[in-house]
Design brief:
The chain is α/β, with parallel strands linked by helices. The protein is built from eleven helices and eleven strands.
């Protein structure tokens, strides 16, 4: 079954078609990688899927229900979570608090006053706290639970992003370059966590990734995007040997 599907999805920015007639299908309980040169439109496609801005044309289906016009929060509530190329943690909250506020964000509570959050979090049920600790344990971040999130290393912030996505309860995750800027040791840990979530907990991932080794290790399917369009899709080996894909990458250090 497809968890997510798009039909002829496009977006225009002042006449520039950043995403051009894209039809993709993401299979449930699989890891799909979205690759392509810089500027190909990968993040823009994620923004359309997450509802950050509307598409100009086309349709999006989540679990076979159309969500084209739904807001980012509605999509979040339906079970679609995303991580950002640049982590979006609350740097003045602790790591634990960053996880605990996710259910509040999901309910649509206003988070503008960061300094009031710890209080509202404290009033929340023990369940959320327990879930946050379990998530920290899973990600091996318990030792930094009470550190301010802003003090974490780049790699730890990426793990926290994954943890925040897990706290939403969503089983479909869009990961935008989660490996970028992460050191080798943490990268291996991230890969292992993604595999565990997929194989043992039934998570589906669509990930934008430049690290070829990671794409090879993780993905069941690779979709290659160039200049706003889907150029090819297939297994990692098929994509690596695809003449047009190789041509598109010539001159690109990927
Ligand atoms: N909000 C926007 N307004 C105008 N142009 C945009 C906007 N977002 C992205 N673009 C353009 O769309 C193209 C694709 O960008 P992006 O999706 O970030 O590529 P990728 O993630 O594949 O590197 C780029 O040329 C970028 O400048
Ligand atoms: Mg990008």
């Amino acid at each position: 079954m497809n968890v997510l599907r798009t039909e002829n999805l496009s977006v225009n920015f002042d006449g520039f078609r950043a995403v051009d007639n894209c039809s993709i299908a993401i299979e449930e309980n699989k890891i799909t990688a979205l690759i392509g040169p810089n500027g190909a439109g990968k993040t823009t496609l994620f923004n359309l899927l997450a509802g950050t801005f509307p598409s100009t044309e086309g349709a999006i289906f989540f679990q076979e229900k159309e969500i084209t016009k739904k807001s980012p929060r509605e999509r979040f509530q339906l079970g679609m979570a995303r991580t950002f190329q640049i982590p979006h943690e609350f740097h003045r909250l602790t790591v634990l608090e960053n996880l605990m506020v996710v259910p509040l964000e999901q309910q649509g509570e206003s988070l503008w006053a960061n300094w009031f959050i710890p209080l509202s979090v404290k009033n929340k049920e023990k369940k959320v706290q327990q879930q946050a600790w379990e998530t920290l344990e899973f990600l091996e971040l318990t030792s930094v639970a009470n550190e301010l999130a802003g003090k974490l290393s780049g790699g730890q912030k990426k793990l926290l992003e994954l943890g925040r996505a897990m706290m939403s309860g969503a089983k479909f995750m869009l990961l935008d370059e989660i490996a970028a800027g992460v050191n080798r040791t943490l990268l291996r840990k991230l890969e292992q966590k993604i595999i565990e979530l997929n194989e043992q907990r039934g998570y589906t991932f669509l990930l934008i990734e430049h690290d070829t080794e990671m794409v090879q290790k993780l993905s069941n399917k690779v979709i290659c995007m160039v200049a706003g369009s889907i150029l090819a899709e297939g297994s990692f080996v098929e994509i690596c040997n695809h003449p047009t894909v190789l041509e598109a990458y010539l001159g690109e250090a990927v």
